[in-house]
Amino acid sequence: MDMKKLNFDKAKVEYEKQIEGLRNGGKPLLVTIILTFLVMIAVCLAVFFGSVQGKEQVMVPNVIGKDLTTALLLLQKNELYAKIQLRYTDLPGNENTILEQDPKASSIIKAYQRVTITVDRGVALDHLEDYVGQDISNVRSRLQLLFSSEASNVNVMAPVYTKDSSEAGTILAQYPDAGTIITPPMNIRFVVSSGNQTEKVTVPNVEGNTIAQVLRAMPSAKVVFDFTSHIASESEKAGTVTSQSSADKEVEAFSHIPVDIAIAAVTEESTNVSGIFTYDAPEYPYAVPMQLDVRDSEGNITSQVQFVHPGKTVTVPFTAKKESTLIFSILGEEKTRQIVQ
User: Fold this and answer.
1) Pairing mode of beta strands 114-123, 81-89
2) Half-sphere exposure for 269 (CA within 13 Å, toward CB)
3) Which of 48, 124, 127, 292 reaches 20 to 30 Å from 32, CA-CA?
4) Closest Cα to residue 194, out of 158, 160, 161, 221?
């Protein structure tokens, strides 16, 4: 019994000592915790106010009435970015002029913010104007601005250049003609003076290509492919190019490039026929738009290829079903039809 009491007394004394120790050292510990907490609050406040203050503030310049290029440079100078919106107006000659801006001029905003500017897209066109004699760069910029939306489906094609006494860049001809009603889908083409310089182009390499691949290459190839064909041998794949001249070489634009294609022999069992369509056209002073379409037995018309050609003998490879009709047009005017047999 005395032993138990002794152990209890010793435990009680030890407990009282620990309590006394906490009383003596607890105050500095509490102060340390409070100071740490205050430092954390100070750091958080510093970060918060730093983020609120953010980037330096700048004044929005007045860009209304200025042309688009000048407006963009002014915004860039003030460390601001432009968000461009387009709008048609009834003000001739006011294209590319800034009509509105948001935020307004003299507003104070943070640097590197976006300023919405509304740009005059010009007078809405329902027909093509006469662009002959104008500079191709100016006309191209205006038309691309007018028809920039994906829904417009009006394409300004790469110009065809030709040697001429006119200043380089002068439009010599346009297709379709001035006054043509704009009815999408529409491709607009220009013949442009290269001055006294003759345009040089690289001949695309079509050897080994299928007829479909050749047709896809023709619209952008500024050369005249003179197509011929022969019945494919056992070692040749029908419907592919077996030979061509000047592949990957630089030549004058619309130089004649011989291309030979192996085609399958037509039999009674054949459903599709490959061949070379040929037409003797007038010789034109410039390369003009031409098109070969196919109409099937149900009357559905699909485009085989659209390309430009200076005239005389025109050759185009094709693959079509028997009894379908090839329709050939120049400058949008149908010239001839041919039954596929």
Assistant:
1) parallel
2) 1
3) 48
4) 161
Task: Kindly list the distances between the CA atom of residue 108 and the CA atoms of 64, 78, 80, 111, in Å, as whole numbers in the listed order.
Answer: 17, 11, 11, 9
Q: What is the three-class DSSP state of 146? A: helix
pTM equals 0.58
Q: Choose which CATH entry (1.10.8, 3.30.70, 3.30.10, 4.10.320) describes domain 136-193.
A: 3.30.10
Q: Pick from 103, 97, 138, 104: which is nearest to 118 by CA?
A: 97
* 57-123: CATH number: 3.30.10.20
Taking the C-alpha atoms of residue 118 and residue 65, their distance in angstroms, rounded to an integer, is 11
Residue 147 DSSP label: T
Mean pLDDT per 10-residue interval, the chain, length 341 residues = 55 60 57 71 67 73 94 93 85 82 94 92 78 93 73 78 91 92 85 89 96 96 96 96 96 96 93 96 90 94 94 96 95 93 89
Residue 12 φ/ψ, nearest 5 degrees = -65, -40
